[in-house]
Amino acid sequence: MATSITLTQPDDWHLHVRTGDMLNHVINDTAKVFGRAVIMPNLTPAITTVDQANHYRQAILSACQYADFDPLMTLYLTDTTTPDEIAKAAKDPNIYAAKLYPAGATTNSSQGIAKLDAIYPLLEAMTEHNLPLLIHGEVTTPEMDIFDREKGFIDQYLIPITQKFSSLRIVLEHITTSDAAQFVLSQPSNVAATITAHHLLLNRNDMLAGGIRPHYYCLPILKRQSHQAELIKVATSGSAKFFLGTDSAPHTQNNKESACGCAGCYTAINAMPLYAQAFEAANALNKLEGFASHFGADFYELPRNKKTITLSKQDWVAPEYINVGNERLIPFFAGKTLSWQVTQHA
User: Fold this and answer.
1) Which pLDDT tens digit goes with each residue over 300-338?
2) What does the alpha-carbon distance between residue 292 and residue 269 come to, in Å, rounded to a whole number?
3) Which one is catalytic: 11, 247, 298, 315?
4) Which of 56, 91, 342, 344 satisfies CB 3.0 to 4.6 Å to 310 for a cystine?
5) Cα separation of 78 and 112, whole Å?
């Protein structure tokens, strides 16, 4: 039984860091361990232009205490985004992708796309300029059951997109179903997916059975155990089509524990121990480095990191809460004992 593992420094290919006091705190939980992170653009207002993305990047760098950390910026696609802005983004050294949010799909997605075929000119431009498309893949129509939203998006929208834009690089973000896993496996190498630690460790029973646990509520929502099992299978398979994306999404305790609580799990503070726990349970610790450190960099056509981190088999207790300004942030698995911890940072 392994008591420590040393990995190429990992990257987080899906991260929310917010603004203000929240940004000043949470960016360092990521940068302490990860070399790079793809920064989500769903702020208020959204990051829709190259200039806005670079301004946000400077704010992130100003808040970050780790000089080697590289925030990889993205644009939020809207009905008013132009092909010229896509071309500008593709030429900018700090912009690495554009993000598709269906309108109303998740936090701050009201500016998202209402009719997906209307953005086909943008997808043409992204294909031409080799700019990846990152997708929050859920149908948001009221009649669609929340547990079926991901499959509905694949059937209604993603299959036509991949058929029409066959060379477009696509990441289906934070997949939650066996349907998504099998779809990605059926596609060529330009279609990949990120998987969160919380979707590997939990299913909907963990969130709902015996009482509602708001700090397990995320979007896409946790699914049944059979879907969780399929995610574990593909994440630990060694397939380069699946890689780490925490979707770490901080909200204050008040905003999570309310009558209409926000969606998102804050995992940046303990992400690698969480993934190690999931991979160890699957008897696949030897597959963790590829998933966490290699496959995402390869997909984004970036060099793999040169530094390393070490995880040791040592129990520790995740903090009950974190003070952020005058508010509290409750991390994922708050107060629980984790069996792995990062003992050597990059």
Assistant:
1) 999 999 999 999 999 999 999 999 999 999 999 999 999
2) 16
3) 247
4) 344
5) 5
- Rounded mean pLDDT of 212-234? 98
| Cβ 230 vs Cβ 178: under 8 Å | yes
Amino acid at 276: A
Structural tokens at position 80: 């008013």
Helices (H), 211-338: 225-235, 253-256, 271-281, 288-289, 295-299
Residue 110, pLDDT > 70, answer no
HSE (side-chain half, CA atoms, 13 Å) at 25: 19
| Domains of the chain, residue spans | 4-344
The pLDDT assigned to 114 comes to: 72
The β-bridge partners of 133 are 98, 170
Amino acid code (one letter) for 14:
H
Secondary-structure class of domain 4-344 per CATH: alpha beta
319's CB contacts (< 8 A; 6+ apart) are 269, 331, 334, 335
Which candidate, 123, 100, 122, places its Cα nearest to that of 113? 100
Residue with tokens 């670079």: 54
Reply yes or no on whether the pLDDT at 79 is more than 70.
yes
Pairing status of strand 70-76 against strand 327-329: unpaired
Number of continuous H segments (helices) and E segments (strands) in the chain = 14, 15
Q: Report the DSSP beta bridge partners of residue 194.
A: 243
Which residues are CB-contacts of 307 (< 8 A; sequence separation ≥ 6)?
A: 8, 9, 35, 68, 346
Whose structure tokens read 């995740």?
Answer: 318
Dihedral Cα 332, 337, 343, 346, nearest 10 deg? -10
Give the max Cα distance, the chain. Answer: 55
Q: Please say if 51 is a catalytic residue.
A: no
Write down the pLDDT at residue 221.
98
pTM: 0.97
What does each C-alpha distance from 88 to 70, 83, 94, 129 come to in angstroms?
20, 9, 11, 10
Q: Give which of 96, 91, 93 is closest to 37, Cα–Cα.
A: 96
